[in-house]
Design brief:
By secondary structure, the chain is an alpha+beta fold. The protein has 5 helices and 13 strands. A hairpin with a 6-residue loop joins strand 12 and strand 13.
Length: 318
């Protein structure tokens, strides 16, 4: 059952490499790292990146191999990224280990190299600026007691250019200066901008072309102070009613006063002249103005012994 699960995991990993169009090399493959003898292998990269994997190695056989990984023009460098790794350690050193060296122009002497690595390693990156790397891998037959974790390795090696391809626009830059990789390597699930703190080729800002909208806030029901609102409208209604009632009373009083004045004036016209008006009539006679007959009749009735006033010719005969 364990062997079936291991075979299935290896098949899925190889299938992933086929889907994304990249190469996957298993470190237990005899053509890469055969058992019980030293071996030298060479891998040339052009426009692809590669995976080196090891999954659940628990065999007794030892493995010691040197894998030379080189890039070719137009690429000039290699970026290495250890996604996850566990190799056994014991005492003050490593039982199993892996190490990276940069091949210089001096034969058999590599001054630039990493330390021997073992134990649990995550998100480790290494830059090979000349595009020529030697990867040293060793599995020891010794099995330290008390260690039950199974060995596993997943390493990605990506070729890069130091200048951007402005003509074809086939390359995009990593956050690391002067590190350009093919645009096809972006957003494919593998970390290729290995030297970035947050690899740009898999960053959300680059891969999420249609970001999800922010969650909408929960609906809230606005609260109103009904008592204040009703009180405000009630006060407004009472003020309007008082204004309307005052206007009606003012108009009514004005109409009533006008009617009283009209009645008094009409009664004064229809009423006969008062005694006070006799002097006015006498003055009218003295001035030669005609006196109305009603005035003479009223004078005779109130003062029968008064002499009749002489008639003043009006200039016409009756």
């Amino acid at each position: 059952m364990v062997n079936v699960a291991r075979s299935l995991a290896s098949f899925l990993l190889v299938l992933q490499g086929l889907v994304i169009g990249q190469d996957v090399f298993n470190l237990t493959d005899p053509s890469i790292c055969p058992a019980d003898r030293s071996h030298h292998a060479q891998v040339n990269l052009t426009d692809r990146y590669v995976f080196f994997t090891l999954d659940g190695e628990d065999e007794v056989a030892s493995r010691t191999c040197a894998i030379n990984v080189k890039t070719s023009p137009p690429h000039t460098g290699l970026m290495l990224f250890i996604d996850r790794m566990y190799l056994r350690s014991g005492g003050d050193g490593c039982v199993d280990h892996i190490q990276f060296e940069i091949e210089d122009k001096i034969p058999f002497i590599n001054m630039r190299k990493s330390k021997k690595m073992c134990g649990h390693v995550h998100s480790y990156s290494y830059d090979v600026d000349n595009g020529n790397m030697m990867m040293l891998f060793q599995i020891s037959p010794t099995r330290p007691s008390g260690q039950t974790d199974r060995t596993h390795v997943k390493i990605t090696v990506t070729p890069y250019k130091k200048t951007k391809d402005y003509a074809r626009r086939r390359y995009e830059g990593c956050y690391k200066k002067s590190h350009y990789i093919p645009s096809a390597f972006f957003c494919d699930g593998a970390v290729n901008c290995a030297l970035d703190a947050d690899p740009r080729d898999e960053a959300d800002s680059r891969c999420n072309t249609t970001p999800a909208p922010p969650p909408s806030p929960p609906p809230t029901t606005p609260s109103y102070d009904n008592s204040n609102t009703l009180k405000e409208y009630d006060n407004l209604g009472f003020e309007s009613e008082d204004l309307r009632l005052g206007t009606i009373i003012s108009v009514s009083l004005g109409v009533l006063v006008g009617l009283v004045c009209c009645v008094k004036r009409c009664s004064r016209v229809s009423r006969p002249s008062s005694p006070v008006s006799q002097d006015a009539c006498h003055e009218m006679r003295l001035s030669g103005l005609p006196v109305h007959p009603s005035q003479r009749e009223y004078q005779r009735a109130n003062n029968p012994h008064a002499p009749s006033a002489p008639r003043v010719s009006s200039g016409y005969t009756e």
